[in-house]
Design brief:
mainly alpha, 0% strand, globular
Length: 203
Amino acid sequence: MNLPKAKEFLEQTISIIDLTQTTEQTMHRKILHIALPSIFTNITVPLLGIVGTYIAAHLGAQFLAAISVGSTLFSTTYSLFNFLRMGTGGVAAQTYGAEQFAESGVVLGRSLVIALSLSLGILLLQQPIIELGLWLMSVEGAQRVLVMNYFHWLIWGAPAMLSLFALNGWLLGMQNAFYPMVVAVTQIYLTLVSPSFSFMRFT
């Protein structure tokens, strides 16, 4: 290999290395752009529970126990629908990677329709759901009445909750973790500033 060719080969090798390093740096920035808001969003989940428990504790032991049972029923019920977030995020990520942005909008629309349909089923079956939950958790007497009041009041948030699953999954699939973080922070803010609304019917 003569000197000009060796020099050209060396320059090409250096260009490839520089390009690889730049690509890795760009990829790391993109990952951090998604990961950091997601980490903060996950941190707000236990914070929301802590805030709710703090507010409920001021109502008395019976109310705190009823809210704990009711929260367990809700978390168990809603956890069955986590596939809305995961499934929507996976399909949305595929359309984003293929730059099929029109199809991404269709994915969101379908997911919201499914979420609203499922939430309608939850609302229609709310009595069997609460009865089954109370039976499994052996809740009786005055405590049973408190849990049922709490459940029947908050169950009307099911359409918003399931739609939020679908929306957050779609946003993450579209490489946007900022808005789910904003929603999580807003939830904590509303829980802090308007506890009377959450427990108005309950009390």
